[in-house]
Specification:
By secondary structure, this protein is an alpha+beta fold. Helices cover 20% and strands 33% of the residues. The C terminus is likely disordered. One of its GO terms (molecular function) is ubiquitin protein ligase activity.
Length: 249
């Protein structure tokens, strides 16, 4: 650890709330002797200083507030050494975030998921048809790697609600160049074919079933036999790639 790192770590230790042991916020509460606690702890009913048992002051410490606003935050994920002033944004995309594999029991840092998937699972891609028969409800998951990133391609069929959906979940590995993508699905059966497009702005903290998906009503299969198979292909492009391709035309 360098002298700079030691100095920063000492500051981080000093600027830690003695109650919840998290980093002091930019508007801390001070007691009359100058001890500081985070405002979240006082909001929860803390009425006296946990260090000296004196009452809290209503005065604001401007210099302390300015120091807290200027200092970067260390990433909370194990193995990551990044310091960032906008730590919430960094941690949202950090490659050291713990994630799981949707295909097996593996778990680990997001930056290692790509290697795990390439070694252990068959990959989906634009030129592979996914074929299925709508005899019962199901959920299937395919792994796909594009732009150096891992995406989970999840298909769900709900026979009772007459719905078939295709969802993408992105697991960012810390090397994010774009978070907006265009998703195109070519859907075919013996009787019909469909094309659907949607624009996706990913949020790695939100993977609910109604996010980043295309939904088909199964009434589109009304002229097909129960035993007929259906297939689809998915194409994924990001807006950086789309803009580059357009500039070449």
């Amino acid at each position: 650890m360098t002298e700079r790192d030691k100095a920063l770590q000492s500051l981080f230790d000093i600027l830690t709330c003695p109650v919840c042991y998290t980093r002091l916020c930019s508007q801390p509460t001070l007691c009359i002797n100058g001890h500081a606690v985070c405002s979240e702890c006082t909001k929860k009913g803390l009425v006296q200083c946990p260090i000296c048992s004196t009452e809290f002051s209503k005065e604001k410490h401007i210099i302390l507030t300015q120091i807290l606003e200027a200092l970067p935050f260390p990433c909370s994920y194990k193995g990551c050494s990044v310091l960032a002033t906008d730590i919430d944004h960094h941690e949202k995309w950090c490659g050291f975030r713990v994630t799981i594999c949707e295909r097996c029991s593996w778990s680990g840092p997001a930056k290692k998921l790509k290697g795990h998937v390439e070694t252990n699972h068959k990959l989906a891609s634009n030129d592979i048809d996914k074929t299925f028969v709508l005899l019962s409800s199901f959920k299937r998951c395919f792994a796909r790697i594009q732009f150096g990133q891992v995406f989970w391609e999840i298909t769900r069929a709900n026979i009772k609600e007459k719905m078939f959906s295709i969802q993408l979940i992105w697991v960012p590995n810390g090397e994010v160049k774009a978070d907006i993508f265009n998703m195109k699905v070519e859907f075919t059966s013996k009787a019909k074919s469909y094309i659907a497009n949607t624009r996706i702005k990913f949020d790695p903290e939100d993977s609910s079933e109604n996010k980043n998906c295309i939904v088909f009503h199964t009434d589109i299969f009304e002229h097909s036999n129960d035993s007929d198979s259906f297939s689809y292909k998915m194409y994924l492009t990001n807006e950086v790639q789309t803009a580059m391709n357009a500039s070449l035309l």
